[in-house]
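Box 3.1. Reading complex inputs
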Amino acid sequence: MALTTDDIKQIAHLARVGVDEASLEPLRADLSTVLGLIEDLNAIDTKGVEPMAHPGNAQLRLRADEVSEENRREALQAPSPETEQGYFLVPRVIE
Amino acid sequence: MYEKTLAEQSQMLAKGECSSSELTAHYLDRIARLDGELNSLISVSADAATASAAAADAKRASKGDSPLLGVPMVHKDIFCVEGGRTTCGSRMLENFHAPYTATVVNKLNDAGMVMLGKANMDEFAMGSSNENSYFGGVKNPWQQNCVPGGSSGGSAALVAARLAPMATGTDTGGSIRQPAAFCGLTGIKPTYGRVSRYGMIAFASSLDQAGPLAITAEDCAMVLQAMAGFDERDSTSSTQSVPDFTANLDKSIDGLKIGVPEEYFSQGLDDAVATQVRAALTEYEKLGAKLVSVSLPNQSLCIPAYYVVAPAEASSNLSRFDGVRFGYRCENPVDLEDLYTRSRGEGFGAEVKRRILIGTYALSAGYYDAYYLKAQQVRRLISDDFDNAFKEVDVIAGPTTPTPAFESGAKTDDPVAMYLNDLYTVSANLCGLPAISMPCGDVNGLPVGLQLTGQYFDEARLLHAAHRYQQATDWHTRMPAGIE
């Protein structure tokens, strides 16, 4: 399926990935080629086939509802670009 | 000492013929001399390695014993190590210091291994040539104008150049096996769930598995023994018991039934590679194995299905990189939307962005059924093909890659040509099956890989079959020129 550069802008917006104007056309071409490869799947009859989300149909385990981790807030926030008093800081959202 | 295998070094250490400190110093010296050219490591931790080696020697002196005690190694830079830098080959994590350590790292530390540093890789493990690393490409030690494969390209190049006897890798669509094939090594992707994914930066969570790259199958068996096992911190970790991978390596493989799918020898396969792989199968017959023709009718759908499932999972996993909690943040964001968009636009490289966009598209409203659900149904058909084949055979054999290593830059402008490198490897990830690649030939001075795929949790049989082949042949002992 051929995509337009407007499609690329929309997908990039959904993914919150900044794409500059100059990259739109190369991305459009690349993604259209990849979608062309994927289109082969449409030729296959999959009526009634159970989708496979996971190898071996693994079921997620449940664990006992017990505290297992100690509080490590400072260590876990250390890699953040900006924190204050335990909060992650972002640009002002509400004026 | 560098020409010795991991198993041989283990013996030397046990007999007191060398110390871990000597071995570690030897490899650190080799890295300093040879890696400037190869670029196989993103970071070298010489001081920590020297200290770990001294600790291993002290432990041995007080009767400590483990086959891996004091053996040097390198981790792919996708495994978190608390305090150290873990980049995943990305600008996004250029200065990321993980607040915790991956289970694989803890397990190999507990076994006494000495980490020399962290290996270069394609950004977020997306790539088949290591050309997508923010830290630069990696050269193939066999021919420096060629790529080492990817995404565990640094791991493969450094073991091939004997900068360590072993390195860890991860494999989402072939990222252990393809570089192992390109660099003349043995590498195994275990069954999904066999090795913990905790602390291993996620690419596609239903496909990702960690495993070793080393010189021989025996070396891989020794390391996998220490890596494998249930981990409550990984929600899909298997509780299946881990057998002794080295116990039966020397036994005969008489009667082993090897399935040979005709689909693996059709279009896209380089003739010279086909010849080498066929010769390896003949060698297996001499060892007592029986070749059985099998069919994998949906083989041609593996790449299309994979390039929906993997990007879809990646687009979800990589949404965590938001410029807020960790990782790269753009300068002077004007608002929250700008913060997200520019941090991700500037922090991710071209291939990672492509895959996030493909995945986002495949999961978006109106396309979910047509792409994602369809791909999951085809994934089931592919898995059924393997189940059927395994009713008749013990393992399935074929080439690891359609061609030997290619020249740097040859496929960077054509994503689909690059994706076709994984033609024979992605099925094991889609199905969750274990698969091993081992060197089985040479085309114009470049190694060729033979792949064996096994049934769920049957790594022992793959390692056994590979070991027997290596006892009868010498491809795995060959080393690139100019690495003295």
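In summary: Residues 1-44 of chain A form a domain with the Histone, subunit A fold (CATH 1.10.20).
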